């Protein structure tokens, strides 16, 4: 536990000096990236706004060629998988135990919060588990407040056991989706009270994680005051108490009503009306431009010097990998 805590001690959500040096430089790269992906129509055009392109550039350290490949892969995936068309009725059975849900709280900075309880695994169909995860990623993005682009993951290991560990195939597909199709959407992922056995698995899987994602994973233990500071930095006092301590933190019937209303918002947004998130992306775009100036390091050096932060091979999940029944995908999420 001590070694994991040391690696979680850096400031939560701290940014890396890998931004474009000026707004003008950033905008020029966005224009070049847009030209490289060609003309888009319909939902893909709506998806690939300037804020989206900026996130993909950030994920690839403002390397246009690498961002182009990453974005084109996502566009092809979205056109095929159609994540925006997934509805609550499609994944309601997966969600009966509350193994994944969007919390009613936000952190001090307004980040949407996704809660995961891998110990509540209730199904064994990997395709449906992926669909549930994608649904909640889309839902978390839909519910981001104005001026915010990122979410927080709270992963509670209460009730987890080896029998509920994630098979390698599902872990690989999960991490691929998270890191490559939702880049720069994660603020921080908190792993709460992972058992000692998890440390060995973490050592195995961390080399497969994107470096940016790796730096956003924080280990928190209820009996370790130092690690608890991570939560206090993120949330108001007792804000997460129900999530981590109340076994009845989730009521399926009530939550279903909330998600059905969100499905209506999603349908409206992707229809192109825009009412579902009026002003949210432009505000986030402004916030991103400010970050480009205040926290950036110049990329006036050779483009080829940009570090390729993509995993050397297909990434794996943060959840332990073992030949066990399929379980909730628990991974270090999207950077």
Automatic annotation (TrEMBL):
Q: Which organism is it from?
A: Physcomitrium patens (Spreading-leaved earth moss)
Q: From start to end residue, where is composition biased (Low complexity)?
A: 310-335
Q: Where is this region: Disordered?
A: 280-335
Q: Where are the transmembrane segments?
A: none
Describe the location of the CRAL-TRIO domain by residue ranges.
Answer: 88-252
Gene name of the record? LOC112290784
- Gene Ontology terms for molecular function: phosphatidylinositol transfer activity
Give a single Pfam family match: CRAL_TRIO_N
Q: Which PANTHER family match?
A: F16L1.9 PROTEIN (PTHR45824:SF6), GH16843P (PTHR45824)
Name of the featured protein:
CRAL-TRIO domain-containing protein
